[in-house]
Amino acid sequence: MMITKINSTIVKPFLFIACPLKNLCVSRSAPEKISLELAIIVPIIKKVNLMGVTIERAIESIIGIVGERYSEIVPLESALGRVSGETVGAQIALPTFNNSAMDGYGLRGEFLDYEVVGKVLAGDAHTVALQEGEALRITTGARVPESVERIIPQENVRRDGERIVIEKPVKIGANIRYMGEDIRHGEKVIERGEKITAAHIGLLASQGITHLKVYRRPRVSIFAGGSELKLHFETIEEAQVYNSNTPYLIARSQELGAKTTFVGRAEDSVASLKSLITSALDADLIVTSGGVSVGEADFTKEAFGELGFEPLFTKVAIKPGKPTTFGRIGRTLVLNLPGNPLASALNFEIFGKLLIRKLGGYKEAYQNVMMVPMAENFIQKKAVDSVIPGFYDGNTFAPAEKYAPGMVNVLPHCNGIIIVSSETKVIQKGQSVKFIPIRWDFGSETFVDLKS
Fold first, then answer.
1. How many CB atoms lie within 10 A of CB 309?
2. What is the tens place of the pLDDT at every residue in 131-183?
3. How far is residue 247's CA from residue 232's CA, in Å, rounded to a whole number?
């Protein structure tokens, strides 16, 4: 077959075309004759673009576009699960004074028996000055006088009137909780970007903190298009299905800490979609599912385009989920997911979760991985990176027995995924893979390669 050389009119859309075979280039300003090798390289470039951006490039696009985050002050009692908007240092050293770790006797000196000359209870402000060979009765939590060198548990002594006999001695400093050994004054008790847990609440309360600056929850608006979709409380007719994507995306966004709004279901028309999109533009993020692949009734792209949607990527080189699209309309970010339930959910785990964590102010916004052994041999059958749902039982990761983009009954039986690189052809049983948990948070401050 004869291939004719490309003329300058065909090259016109390209400012620069490089040929690795001949180091040959063509520019608008200086069109040259093009070799056969260059004629072949142009369609290859177009094919690569059609494959979509890499996962890494998609993540980079998301991280690069998320800008200013807003904070608010909330009572400590309402801070659970929020993300701290400030770093807080300890104002009070804990313990605030040297105190007894148990009920017993405070001793001065090292003898076989001691005279008991006083008593200090928890909450007492007074102190007792001991001389060599003297002891005092002390209870758990009571302030330890400076003259006390050690505290011996009451079961280690035998009391005889006002004297005690040591039956099992203890070392100097034993059973004394020293001031600041738990928390030093000025030590960080929570950092900006940390998710506030029950443990943080207790720690902050120990400092007498009543209010805390937190990042505002990301506002996520979710809707689904498609006349064939019905909400779960509606009656379905022949050729119609219940909408499972939207309830899942709402619930998962809430699990991740977002404040969600369901803006409705659009009919298959540009006007209907534009109306829903417009009503959601006060959100930080709009998430849709369906209408992003090639199809006569897919109006999502057209509707977003008419409202000024600026795409950052329109395809990702991943299966399932190639048609995943991300961009913005003004300050509102937009994530368009595939319509197939499993494809939508898996790509939300990779991209939607990252968006919510970044918008929510998480210090560890990136996804982290756990290196775990594979339970069985796995053969990569895709030419692009593949997302494999499965279950990690604490020993090995086993892919789900059956999974396909359109399935719903997969993720309830999975606790994570792996992403198998297109360059990986076989994973042997026992070989380490990068497990991405979806049942619990495991974040990173920096980018982590997610692919096995």
1. 21
2. 999 999 999 999 999 999 999 999 999 999 999 999 999 999 999 999 999 99
3. 9
Residues making up the chain, counted from first to last: 452
- Into which CATH architecture does domain 73-92+184-215 fall? Alpha-Beta Complex (3.90)
Please return the burial class of 144, using the count of CB atoms within 10 Å of its CB with bins 0-12, 13-18 and 19+: buried
* 224-264 per-position pLDDT tens digit: 766 677 788 888 888 778 889 999 999 999 999 999 999 98
Contacts of 134 (CB under 8 A, 6+ apart): 108, 109, 114, 115, 116, 117
Domain locations along the chain: 73-92+184-215, 99-177, 217-360, 366-444
H-helix segments, 269-352: 270-279, 300-306, 341-347
Q: Are 243 and 231 in contact (CB under 8 A)?
A: yes
What are 50's two structure tokens?
């059609």
pTM above 0.85, yes or no: no
Q: What is the DSSP string of 352-379?
A: IHHHHHHHTT-TT-EE--EEEEBSS-EE
Around Cβ 330, how many Cβ atoms within 10 Å? 10
393: number of Cβ within 10 Å: 11
Does domain 366-444 fall under CATH 2.40.340.10? My reply is: yes
For domain 217-360, the CATH class is: alpha beta
